[in-house]
Design goal:
This protein is mainly beta. It is 7% helix and 50% strand. The two termini are 23 Å apart.
Length: 107
């Protein structure tokens, strides 16, 4: 299990996530070797942009990202050449938008 965390460290993944009131949320996660992360969210069609920093840990097959400024935790599963955003219970998003919650590894 620790090997999986090592394989996604120093990784960058990006996707255009669904958005109810904008054209999409361009989201990028930078997972760093030192146990920190940075996420950037740009709400397309608006002027809204958000940068989140914090720490991450690998637990039970899931990357748990903890924001330094927000109690919200992000749950991600590392898969081959991609990262899948999970819901608050640690489950993959299902339904017709499921593929929209997969962030492809950037080179």
């Amino acid at each position: 299990p620790a090997d999986i965390a090592v394989s996604v460290s120093s990784a960058c993944a990006a996707s255009l996530l669904p958005c109810a009131d904008c054209e999409g949320i361009q989201t990028t996660y930078h997972i760093n070797n030192d146990g920190t992360f940075v996420s950037n969210e740009v709400y397309k069609g608006t002027k809204d942009q958000f940068k989140t920093t914090g720490t991450w840990e690998y637990k039970n097959g899931v990357l748990l990202l903890k924001s330094a400024s927000d109690p919200t935790q992000f749950l991600l599963r590392a898969e081959k050449n991609q990262i899948r955003l999970l819901d608050g219970d640690g489950n993959a998003v299902t339904g017709e938008l499921a593929d929209k919650y997969i962030l492809k590894k950037a080179r």
